[in-house]
Amino acid sequence: AQTVTQSQPEMSVQEAETVTLSCTYDTSENNYYLFWYKQPPSRQMILVIRQEAYKQQNATENRFSVNFQKAAKSFSLKISDSQLGDTAMYFCAFTPAYSGAGSYQLTFGKGTKLSVIP
Amino acid sequence: AAGVIQSPRHLIKEKRETATLKCYPIPRHDTVYWYQQGPGQDPQFLISFYEKMQSDKGSIPDRFSAQQFSDYHSELNMSSLELGDSALYFCASSEGQGATEAFFGQGTRLTVV
Predict the structure, then answer these.
(1) Are B43 and A104 within 8 A, CB to CB?
(2) How many CB pairs (< 8 A) connect A and B?
(3) Which of A11, A61, A95, B86 is buried most, with the most CB atoms less than 10 Å from its CB?
(4) Which of the four pLDDT bands, split at 50, 70 and 90, describes residue B59?
């Protein structure tokens, strides 16, 4: 079984500053995917960024980037130039990479509530 | 672009009643996943379907059942509702085998009173 741990229940950052959200995970799988999802007050689950475990290069999506440390089983999210619209709950999630089952069973962390302060 | 559609968006039921939640995946998506998110909790995987067959099962109570139909839409049937079933129920869909991204619907908020 997989576990995902987010040790920061709440964080805040000043607008335009940079913030890093932490995530660690535990798995015996060798190939898997890691994700950061954003859940704003509307409760919609929005994919922020995805990392494939077999890729050493850290994923980047505009202002969002990750620091993926496979040996340490760490997957942190860095948000640069924080904007008010980034205020949301952020979930780190894991899924094993199945080759053919068509299944995509996400295990989520407990989430980090991020507040961007004007 | 078309997204995952869930209906209804909100539902209020009494204890011991039955509820049916519907999910319409993105066109050409053949896999559907159901998640339950209790108040202040992280989403928990319930069940998934690929090509109309159950592919994985998570922490779904025996009182719940689900299926995927020939048009790939899915329904989650919940019977003998309990207060603890009050939650946000998400559906997500993906395309093909070994998909690496699933798209979430906006969720159905079920309140059991």
Answers:
(1) no
(2) 77
(3) A95
(4) confident
- The verdict on a CB contact (< 8 Å) between A105 and B99 is no
Residue B1, pLDDT score: 65
Chain A contacts of B56, Cβ < 8 Å? 101, 103, 105
What are A112's two structure tokens? 């980090």
pLDDT at A92 over 80: yes
Cα separation, A4 vs A71, whole angstroms: 15
The residue ranges of DSSP E strands in B1-113, in sequence order, are 5-7, 10-13, 19-24, 31-37, 44-50, 53-57, 64-68, 74-78, 87-94, 103-104, 108-112
Is the Cβ–Cβ distance between A52 and A63 less than 8 Å? no
Whether the Cβ atoms of residue A45 and residue A39 lie closer than 8 Å to each other: yes
Smallest Cα distance from B4 to chain A, Å: 11
